[in-house]
Amino acid sequence: MSQAAPLSIAHPAIRRTPSRRPARAPIAYALLWLAALTAVLPFAWQFMLATHSTSDIAGTTPPFSIGGDLATNYRALMAYAPYFWRSLANSAVIGVASTAVTVLFSALGGYAFARYDFPAKERLFWLLLLTMMIPGQLGLIPWYIQMTWMGWTNSFLPFVVPAVGNAFGTFWMRQYISSAISPELFDAARMDGCGELSTFWRIAFPLAMPAAATLAITTFIAGWNAFLGPLIVMTDPSMYTYAVALANLRGVHGTDVGALLVGCSIATIPMLVVTIVGSRRLIDGLTAGSFGGQ
Amino acid sequence: MTESTRRAVWAYLFVSPFYLSFLAFGVFPIGFGFYLAFTRWTPDTTTWVGLANVVNLAQDGLIHRALYNSLWLMGTITVLQMGIALLIALALSSTRLRGRELFRAAFFLPYVTSPVVLGLLWGAIFAYTGLLNYALGLVGVGPVDWLGFVTGSGTWIKPAIALVTIWQYFGWNVLLFSAGLQAIPREIGEAARMDGANEAQVLRWVTLPLLSRVTFFIASITVIGSMQLFDAPLMLLGGVAGAGSGTLGGAEASGLTLAMAIYDTAFNYGQFGYAAAIALLLFGLLVLLTTGMRRLLFREGLN
Fold first, then answer.
1. Is any Cβ of chain B less than 8 angstroms from the Cβ of A125?
2. In this complex, is the C-beta atom of B274 within 8 Å of any C-beta atom belonging to chain A?
3. What's the Rg (C-alpha) of chain A?
4. ipTM of the complex
5. Structural contact between residues A153 and A234, judged by C-beta atoms closer than 8 angstroms
6. What percent of chain A has pLDDT over 70?
7. What is the pTM for the complete model shown?
């Protein structure tokens, strides 16, 4: 849901003038704390439950402290899904590869839209915006059939090659390059005999890093969490992503909840790190960009 | 070759990977999907069946159920999630607040976590002897059979799915509303107060109208997202193991969404053409909903 529509609210400098209004602090704090705890506590609950046996978890009073069954649960997880670490690596491969491809080609296309004049440019850009509105479900069935025709099942290709055509990424990079990088820089580079490709690679791409970083984090999160696509094209367990591996552990009856939650906990840790390390720049980048501000 | 032609050629070279990939993996599947919806498709043969899939769609009680479920979830989630998020965003925007970054990071965490993990985790919380029923028991309510595994009743399945989804995405909406609120110059509100407007009036007549673009954006992504729920309800209600057994949507198919129906129809029953027809129905609904919303939000000519 991180796709941004081309909205254009001007983003005036945030005013820091002191307000004479009394701050509605107590109610605001109460609400914010309630919301923050609601957002975070289920994760704490997940880590705690991962240390309990399934029968403890299913007891009439749920456990409220750290238990001693983490090692047992972990061994059970490895017995049910020997490929679990492999599936985490697969998710990482999809995340990293799709991110590299998306960022590179989005920057290239965005640069062309920002800095060149060419016939049918407006119409092509309009088409690009239109593609961001098409929901993914529409193409799911034909996409699957196409992948089987191309022999791309049980491979990373379905998640890496189409990343070349990331409409949101191209739009995103275009917005940044056209508004945040001075055109004089490109002209100067050309005067100095820089070719078209090296102007992009040596000037535009490094300068577009702030926008590229935001795009990279969101693309990585989507790739790391990939589920429905891998669920239908990966039939070989050694090619599962972690989400598919976990989904397969969930039975209608008789699920080993303890083992499952160990798996969930392991898979949550990278996102926990991303949030703690990158949330500020990611949130600022995403929300500012969503409304066309810089 | 003139300089401008030369530069245009480079520009085409730079944008061509996007359009080639988009043709191959965007336009082609969608065009093919429209065609598939009027066929009976198997890996070996494709039979043109005309409107047979559409006729089936009109008579298929299970799909009507899924349609109802998806619309119910879409309405409930959009209204509650945006209401809650706006309230929290207003709290977050109050002056002299400490720990704003901490709150924002906390709200962001569920949003970046895989819906598969969240569905599994909340499955444990919603369990008959789980945390939620325990907490409700402390205040003398329940137990509630949230997921319908005990009583076979699907009454609480949709509220449970809505709860997980709102919990996952409210923080993202808070962050978007916050960005929108920050873009409103404080002076406009001050001026209204000088003229004697109270806080509620400022909110209704100044803040909300100025937020309408942001609101439209959030409403769009929320409607589009909540119409396509798949991972979390699938995990809450039994995972992929339940697929093909008719239990994918939980008790009384109360948690069967259109996206789950598409998946089940194609990959467990092998009816690819029919699944493509359901996808077409979903697509048509999304187009209707988003254009309708645009009319509704911008009818006063605010933008």
1. no
2. no
3. 24
4. 0.88
5. yes
6. 86
7. 0.88
